[in-house]
């Protein structure tokens, strides 16, 4: 939690941006895993609630009445039996005053507030819900069925929150730097643990445990896999095999901010020439983004530049063919790179993704693409100072996709399916870092760089 | 997953026990943490769904039409874009045949099945839901508001499921043994990591990481705390302090079955005399339960025996006073032991808790108590062969509870508040093991015993 003046200032700006009505910011509740009292842990507060109300307890709702300029923290106090089980907790009224909120009230007051607002036909703003308990709460408060709530969410509120959360404050950047430091520990431990015979799951557990020991938790399900070609591959019980690459995509949440890095390295600690040929293309794409990212540059253009660069290099290896511009226009490169170059990062690892990609990553000038591959680009619009974005190109050899396109003849004029077939056992490579957009360029976040140049990787893994 | 004959046999027995109507067993869906695509991980399937349908994919529902003797696995197949992100997955029809289910169908078929059953006024059985998305699903299928669903759940189905899941099959016991082995690793690593200056969170991360590396996940949020008096204390950022006790309550899930152990040990590896005086009482209570647990014995009676034994010993230390029987009848012992002696364990760490404590742990003969402390006893009824239960007495010094009772004069004739006040810095002690009820007694589960006799603990921690 930051100082209370932070939250007071943010809410004041939010009121100005939204202009009128009643804003409801729902905090999260415990999320039962396999029965009501056994919740997923640790508790994850809603990021926008945290941004404006700063408190980590479950069962809270922030209410901002813009027209009457009042703020209320809603939540029920806990009793002695709860204290025995969960320890002492501040009263809701104390939680409110800690973040500069004047009023507080029990959950039943929220029903009165909503009834009154509905009676007076006032606008009630809420963000698109993603927790199903919140959907039931909104249904009971406002009468909107869960299936209608994403549409009923307030565009004014979404746009205001995106505007504010996109540009990171200095104290937020510091928090991300700390998270990246733990990310360094997670990744370098994995690099030193990975060797032939050790299971993917064992290494994944080391990564997860490090996040739990040094931060709060992982920022998303850790990917540690010899099958890097599966974008979201869970660590399996399979032992690592000499000759394969291991891909580790992992990050942590620390003090409410995330890290997100990917490294790919040989299980033996030594690249083969075939691996190196592909790796160097990914490395070049990764470093290109670093070189050009600065305020005013469209991330969509950088993504497309990288698609062209990758196509050029894959043509040199004989995996692609034909005119580069035409190949990229047809989306042929998506055989290798079926995802986007990067995304916003902050309190959420894909920052604000739940508010809608079209509002977070795009604007009137830059619209999302519908083409396979580029449709997964989560950020397209022009970069601004103090954006935090990921730079994460990759090249994958996905047997099911090779077979699918080949059987349809999709992009056959740009792809060498014969040669592609011999890469079905290759896996995938991704290199990902977190960048802060500065006044006239960008810089890596995190004091220590996780090794990624091939020579550095081999040297580090020889330890 | 066990062999398909297991699931065929179980569903046949379930049909016999429930007798008529249509049974819906909802599998779980992904549970979003902070936006729709960022789910808590790993995915946790519903235990009763697993017990009867054995499959781990999200988005499945098992339908058993008892009257027409048909079984259907409901779920939507995934497409090529999903395969790119998550890898290949069996079709729903294959998933069905792997567990001996003849029919399968897409999710929209479930709506037709329910509409048809409602039209014919047939009984539709479902278990009390605990996932809010399942509640919305039930509301949309059957028209019951989430707040009414616990009451609308089928008592026949609950009782049948409890009857079957309470008695563990040999293959289930083997799975629990394997989980207990990982529990041994988790706890002994914590014992060897704990020392003055190391943070609670650091040790907790080691415990969690070990569960992730060697099993699937923790079976509940790991408790690792110098404040053992907080029943569900999260590991904090505080460093361990010489002179204090650390309490570790942790278990894992492996192959769908749980472990759950608690150990309490001195941060320095050496007990003080004051700690030993309390520890030996907990140890004696723990070992007493071991001695008497056998088929036919009421767990409620064992719990009360232990309350009396604890009261006797606390009187010897001067912390309690007066007549033992009267003290226990008044619930004075709950100052020290505000929870129950143990609970069922199986696929859920508190097995089947979501189905309702009154059906799982109690019966006509033995009803739940409403008295503070004993109301937290989750199991009271007579033990049967192949029950798996935990044995977990504890003694805690809870400052807020001491102050609360003292201010009210509650049980003052049985408590020495003067002396209690000097124990406010003590913390709490719990010793927990998992027992299999055998033909004529019980035995520990897990090949290796986590040290708990004081001399063994000190010897182990000196390593
Ligand atoms: Mn990323
Ligand atoms: Mn337990």
TrEMBL record, chains A, B:
Its EC number is 3.4.11.9. The keyword Metal-binding applies. Pfam families: AMP_N, Peptidase_M24. GO terms for molecular function: manganese ion binding; metalloaminopeptidase activity. It catalyses: Release of any N-terminal amino acid, including proline, that is linked to proline, even from a dipeptide or tripeptide. Keywords: Aminopeptidase, Hydrolase, Manganese, Metal-binding, Protease. Residues 2-133 form the Aminopeptidase P N-terminal domain. It comes from the Bacteria. GO terms for biological process: proteolysis. InterPro entries: Aminopep_P_N, Creatin/AminoP/Spt16_N, Creatinase/aminopeptidase-like, Pept_M24, X-Pro_dipept-like. Its cofactor is Mn(2+). It is an enzyme of class 3 (hydrolase). Belongs to the peptidase M24B family. This is Xaa-Pro aminopeptidase. It comes from Marseilla massiliensis.
């Amino acid at each position: 939690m930051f100082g209370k003046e932070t939250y007071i200032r943010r809410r004041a700006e939010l009121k100005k941006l939204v202009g009128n009505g009643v804003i409801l910011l729902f905090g999260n509740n415990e999320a039962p895993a396999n029965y009501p009292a056994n919740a997923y842990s640790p508790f994850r507060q809603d990021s926008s609630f945290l941004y404006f109300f700063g408190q980590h307890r479950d069962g809270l709702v922030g209410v901002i009445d813009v027209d009457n300029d009042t703020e209320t923290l809603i939540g029920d106090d806990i009793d002695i039996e709860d204290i025995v089980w969960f320890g002492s907790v501040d009263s809701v009224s104390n939680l409110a005053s800690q973040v500069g909120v004047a009023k507080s009230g029990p959950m039943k007051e929220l029903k009165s507030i909503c009834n009154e607002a509905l009676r007076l036909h006032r606008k009630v703003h809420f963000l698109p819900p993603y927790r199903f308990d919140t959907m039931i709460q909104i249904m009971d408060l406002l009468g909107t069925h869960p299936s209608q709530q994403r549409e009923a969410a307030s565009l004014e509120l979404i746009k205001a929150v995106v505007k504010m959360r996109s540009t990171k404050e200095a104290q937020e950047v510091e928090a991300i730097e700390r998270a990246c430091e733990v990310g360094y520990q997670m990744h370098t431990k994995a690099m030193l643990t990975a060797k032939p015979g050790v299971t993917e799951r064992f290494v994944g557990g080391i990564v997860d445990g490090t996040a739990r020991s040094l931060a709060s938790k992982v920022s998303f399900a850790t990917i540690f896999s010899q099958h890097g070609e599966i974008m979201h591959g869970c660590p399996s019980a399979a032992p690592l095999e000499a000759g394969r690459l291991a891909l580790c995509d992992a990050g942590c949440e620390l003090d409410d901010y995330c890290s997100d890095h990917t490294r790919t390295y040989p299980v033996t600690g030594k690249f083969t020439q075939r691996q190196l040929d592909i790796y160097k293309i990914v490395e070049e794409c990764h470093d290109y983004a670093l070189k050009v990212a600065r305020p005013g540059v469209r991330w969509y253009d950088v993504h497309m530049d990288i698609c062209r660069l990758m196509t050029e290099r894959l043509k040199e290896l004989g995996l692609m063919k034909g005119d580069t511009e035409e190949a990229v226009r047809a989306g042929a490169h998506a055989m290798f790179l079926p995802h986007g170059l990067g995304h916003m990062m902050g309190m959420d690892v894909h920052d604000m993704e739940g508010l809608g990609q079209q509002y977070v990553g795009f604007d009137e000038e830059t619209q999302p693409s519908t083409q396979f591959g580029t449709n997964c680009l989560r950020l397209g619009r022009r970069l601004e100072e103090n954006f935090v974005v990921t730079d994460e190109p990759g090249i994958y050899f996905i047997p099911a996709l090779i077979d699918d396109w080949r059987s349809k003849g999709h992009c056959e004029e740009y792809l060498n399916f014969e040669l592609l077939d011999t890469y079905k056992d290759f896996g995938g490579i991704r290199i990902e870092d977190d960048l802060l957009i500065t006044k006239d360029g960008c810089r890596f976040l995190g004091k220590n760089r996780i090794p990624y140049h091939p020579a550095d990787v081999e040297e580090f893994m020889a330890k």
